[in-house]
Amino acid sequence: MLNQAEALDRCNALVKHARSLGADAADAVFVGSQSENVNVRLGNLEAVDRSESEHFGLRVFIGQRSATIGSSAIDSASLDELASRACAMAAIAPEDSSAGLAPEDMLMRGELPDLDLVSDPTPTEMLRETALAIEDAARAVGGITNSEGAGAGTGRSTIALVTSHGFAGAYRQSQHSRSAAVVAGTGNKMERGSEWRVARHSRLLPDGAAVGRRAAERAVARLNPESMRSGPMPVVFDPLVGRSLIGHLIGAMAGPAIARGASFLQDHEGKPVFDTGITIIDEPLRPQGLASHPFDGEGLPTAPTTLIADGVLTGWLLDAASARKLGRRPTGHAVRSGGAAPSVSTSNVVLQAGAESVSDLIADIADGVYITDLIGQGVNGVTGDYSRGASGFRIVGGEIAGPVSGITIAGNLLQMFAHLRPANDLEMTHAVNVPTLRVDGMTVAGC
Questions:
Q1: Do residues 143 and 324 lie in contact, with contact meaning Cβ atoms separated by under 8 Å?
Q2: DSSP 73-116
Q3: What phi, psi does 94 have (nearest 5°)?
Q4: Residue 287 predicted with pLDDT over 80
Q5: Could you count the other beta carbons within 10 Å of the beta carbon of residue 61?
Q6: Helix 76-91 vs helix 4-20: angle between axes, to the nearest 10 degrees?
Q7: pLDDT per residue over 351-364, tens digit each?
Q8: Strand, coil or helix: 355
Q9: Are 351 and 421 in contact (CB under 8 A)?
Q10: Is 350 exposed, middle or buried (0-12, 13-18, 19+ CB in 10 A)?
Q11: Are the CB atoms for 232 and 441 separated by under 8 Å?
């Protein structure tokens, strides 16, 4: 895989060649990755997968016409051809008044911050030992009858970006993972449980036994599910699935959706969307963060952003194109992936914890449901209407009761956000982190 200096040199050459062919402006991105994953099943080594990929993306502008193209061929001749094809495509593309690089005066200058994203790879034999320990711990839990396997992985990647108007930067990051999936029960009464954890440094991961036990405990807890009555009731989201609610918020805050008039948050900028006390922050410069990055996909510096301040929606997430459409300045939230044009997203997002424990949060729920799994994609980003299949556990008399499955939960995201209450059990283990969340007034459909 190319190192940072080599990646920057190739990106710079791509941009220069595109300019020599008539492009008024251009930028080039490189994304390279290496990974190794060891998987075991029923105590036996099942696979050792090693992969490596390298991809260049080139975006060129001729006037207000643009084209974006990508290639996994990295030799000089192929990259020269890539530039030629991109310029030919841009020459016949329709004009777009929003086309162009990010504002030059906003580009990142100076040294990149050290975000502590790089660590040594884990040796293959250690990955194997870890995977076996994960599965052994899972299979030792009473009620587990089969295993879909356990795994441990390690990897690293390099990201580089060069623009024709003065930005050049690159950084590296590492990744370590541990996972398990096991089955409890027999016949037509089997349930699956899984756990997956990832971190920039292996020392930040739970030990293999803890990963295996967590997967097994989830499977056993789901045995013999029932359905439940239909009707309006409080719904409590486990943090693993509660994160998806913030994903819907981020999608509705994205500049392209706002510019198209296709967001349920369209008329809510600067207005209360959540209850007072709710704060959601995007932290791209968090050391060791799973989604940390020193610059965005267009060469702008990144910085912490408060998305929701004491319940109030602060503004939109903008790349250069959506900012121009809205008559604003970009916010440093552009992201790139290979041969695609920039899109908009966040980094490490945190919904700050509330003051109540989980037991206090559910104590007054006479009849409700605690959701651990969501199924389907029944969310309308324009209206905010929300309807998804779900499973989890009943809440009866303020206590978690037996498992339930085959239910549907429904509501509207604006109303759900307005009634959302967080517990105090926030853990920083993912790119998007939330505590347990309670939402009153949702509709549950059982059998």
A1: no
A2: --SHHHHHHHHHHHHHHHHTSPP-TT-SPPPGGGS--SPPP---
A3: -70, 150
A4: yes
A5: 23
A6: 40
A7: 999 999 999 999 99
A8: coil
A9: no
A10: buried
A11: yes
Question: What phi and psi, each to the nearest 5 degrees, are found at residue 127?
Answer: -60, -45
Label residue 338 left, alpha or beta by phi (over 0 means left) and psi (-120 to 50 means alpha): left
Specify whether the CB–CB gap between 176 and 198 falls below 8 A. yes
pLDDT tens readout for residues 256-270: 999 999 999 999 999
Q: Is 210 helix (H, G, I), strand (E, B) or coil?
A: helix
What are the φ/ψ torsions at residue 239 (nearest 5 degrees)? Answer: -55, -35
* Max CA separation in the chain (angstroms): 72
Would you give the DSSP letter of residue 341? P
17: tokens are 């060649």
Q: Name the nearest CA neighbour of 161 among 152, 171, 170.
A: 170
How many other β-carbons are positioned within 10 Å of the β-carbon of residue 323?
Answer: 23
pTM above 0.90, yes or no: yes
Residue 156, helix vs strand vs coil: strand
Of the candidates 308, 242, 258, the one whose C-alpha atom is nearest the C-alpha of residue 281 is: 308
Domains and CATH numbers, the chain: 4-220 (3.30.2290.10), 225-447 (no CATH)
- Counting Cβ atoms within 10 Å, is residue 224 exposed (0-12), middle (13-18) or buried (19+)? exposed
Q: Are 10 and 30 in contact (CB under 8 A)?
A: yes
Q: What angle do CA 401, 402, 403 make, to 5 degrees?
A: 130
Element (H, E) at 293: none
pLDDT in tens, 314-323: 999 999 999 9
Overall residue count recorded for the chain in this entry: 447
Residue 279: the pLDDT is: 98
List of residues 6+ apart from 87 with CB closer than 8 A: 18, 21, 22, 23, 60, 62, 67
Helix, strand and coil content of the chain, in percent to the nearest 5, comes to 25, 40, 40
Q: What is the DSSP letter of 261?
A: T
Contacts of 146 (CB under 8 A, 6+ apart): 182, 183, 190
Task: Give the up-direction half-sphere exposure of residue 17: CA atoms within 13 A in the CB hemisphere.
Answer: 20
**pLDDT mean over 337-362:** 94
Amino acid type, 44: N
Nearest to 11 by CA among 173, 169, 165: 169
Query: What is the residue whose two structure tokens read 């552009």?
Result: 334
DSSP 229-247: --EEEEEEE-HHHHHHHHH
